[in-house]
Structure prediction request, 113 residues.
Amino acid sequence: MTVRGLGIDIVSVERITKAMQRPGFLDRILAPSEREQTLSPQRVAGRWAVKEAVAKALGTRPGWHDVIVVNDLSGAPEVHVAPHRLPPGCRVLVSISHERDMAVAVAQVVGPP
Ligand SMILES: CC(C)(COP(=O)(O)OP(=O)(O)OC[C@H]1O[C@@H](n2cnc3c(N)ncnc32)[C@H](O)[C@@H]1OP(=O)(O)O)[C@@H](O)C(=O)NCCC(=O)NCCS
Prediction:
């Protein structure tokens, strides 16, 4: 597998906290399955950061709902990217971290050379 793209994003939790008070914000940013989780502002900020990091890694702007974050049983995040947004044979790896005030995510597109 070859690294085909890399992206990073950092997000202010305060900014997301304010945005979460706007009607429709969460529906726009998060897919229905993502909205089923407990949504602390830190977690939402992490989701936002992942989606922006994936856009940077892909070099395109997928729709917000084309990049869906799930946590595996250990809590590690995985992204499901809509196949039509991915180069053939590629997948995307992500990592998220958040503190009280900031969230950060990195994304890496890997695939055939
Ligand atoms: C899993 C672990 C790494 C999470 O660390 P943390 O400081 O609580 O996590 P952060 O606050 O930085 O980030 C939280 C995000 O980490 C991600 N995460 C959670 N569990 C994870 C795991 N097992 N693997 C990878 N990422 C994980 C999630 O995306 C989470 O955000 P979300 O729940 O909103 O999706 C930590 O609990 C742990 O077990 N550390 C092992 C300690 C250790 O062995 N250290 C020595 C390393 S050499």
